[in-house]
Amino acid sequence: MGRHLFVAALLSLPAGATAQDAPAAAILRGKVPSQPYIAYEVRDALGRAIRGYLSERQGTTLRPLIVYVHGSGHQSHFRRVADRTIPANGHATLTDVARGVARVLIVEKPGVLQYDDGSLPPSDAFRREHTLDRWVEAVVAMTRAIRRLPDVDTTRLLLVGHSEGGLVAARVAARLPEVSHVALLAGGGPTQLFDIIQFARRGTFFSHVAPDPATRVAYVLAQWDSIRADPESATRDFFGHPYRRWASFLGDSPMAALRATRAAVFLAQGEDDQAVTRESFDVLAAELLAAGRNPHLHLVAGADHSFHGSTTPQDGWSEILVRIRDWYLSEVPSRDGAVIPPT
After folding, report:
1. Residue 26, C-beta contacts closer than 8 angstroms, at least 6 positions apart
2. What is the dihedral of CA 268, 240, 105, 299, to 10 degrees?
3. Can you tell me the mean pLDDT for 81-90?
4. Could you read off the pLDDT of 185-232 as tens digits, one per residue?
5. What is the structure's pLDDT at 83?
6. DSSP string of 190-220?
7. Could you tell me what percent of the chain has a pLDDT over 90?
8. 315: pLDDT confidence band, cut at 50, 70 and 90?
9. 167, containing H or E segment
10. % helix, strand, coil for the chain, step of 5
11. SS3 of 327, please?
12. β-bridge mates for residue 216, sequence order
């Protein structure tokens, strides 16, 4: 198969259309070769053709849905190696641990090229498309469409977001009242600008700019001023992403999004994460607790951004996903966002 866009070109919102309009139907596109997924397509509120993949049904019992949102980058969910199709972005592990008890849905980012492994520069379409609101809209459209399928249990719904996907998952949960559970894996808490400043001060980021912490922080703030002055630019870059991406993502936070949902919350963070700070995890946990929520907190000693540890042989990514699966299936959200045992 040749490389081609999964999505149409940018289209404006149809006259009178809103995100709350009746969801479009999912269009079956066939099985993913050699992978346990069925491909679907849906037209979102922006007029784009969005591609998603639902894990195959196991047995005759209806199973609830888990929507997985991966982190930053323009890599596709699948790659081609010789004549084989292989998974990417961490979803295969979730599908494995959920097999027989839940269905997993993954959504391709608008503008991503089919089988793109991220080794080449992103397409112009991706650079234009990848903003928080447009990415959220795609996930919302596909989630609503898949939940209309007759072989999906709709009694509960879990959003799992890793890294950048944490903010997306939280914002989708705020948009969809049917979301009962949301799990953020190294997803931050306040705006991502907080983490960038913290890591710049420590020298983890931008050590090449200056040896002095204050100078590095001043550099970050100057870059943010430039982004705010040109927030729609898809050609000017900072730290590996276009201004357009930064303006939308840094203008929101998981903290703000989770305040707008009553879903049960699971937060996980690796203590040795070099992309998201431990402080972000603590701030989000404290804010939720102060608001009367009861988040399930899981801090992993020695774990990095992908929950792997240098001192332990265990598969940390698989372990944290098993914990989330068990939490999702064993607890039922109450009206105030706490969780109570199922009856």
Report:
1. 40, 41, 42, 52, 142, 145, 146, 148, 149
2. -10
3. 93
4. 999 999 999 999 999 999 999 999 999 999 999 999 999 999 999 999
5. 87
6. S-HHHHHHHHHHHTSS-TTT-SSHHHHHHHH
7. 86
8. confident
9. helix 164-175
10. 30, 25, 45
11. helix
12. none
Q: How far apart are CA 64 and CA 338, in angstroms?
A: 20
Q: What interhelical angle do 91-98 and 316-330 show, nearest 10? A: 50
In 3D, which of 304, 276, 283 has the Cα closest to residue 164?
276
- For residues 312 and 321, the answer to whether their CB atoms sit within 8 Å is no
Residue 328 pLDDT > 50: yes
- Give SS3 for 246: helix
Joined together, the tokens standing for residue 229 give 């002055």
Two structure tokens written together for 321: 């996903």
**Left if phi > 0, otherwise alpha if psi is -120 to 50, otherwise beta: which for 41?**
beta
**How many CB atoms are located within 10 Å of the residue 186 CB?**
28
| 239 torsion bin: left (phi>0), alpha (psi -120 to 50), beta (else) | left
Cα-atom radius of gyration of the chain, to the nearest Å?
Answer: 20
Tokens of 88: 């990417």
* Among 176, 183, 209, CA closest to 296: 183
pLDDT of amino acid 223 = 98
How far is the C-alpha of 247 from the C-alpha of 334, rounded, in Å? 35
Q: Taking each helix axis from N to C terminus, what angle separates 278-290 and 192-202, rounded to the nearest 10 degrees?
A: 140
Residues 6+ apart with CB under 8 A from 164: 71, 72, 192, 249
For the chain, helix (H) and strand (E) counts, in that order, are 10, 15
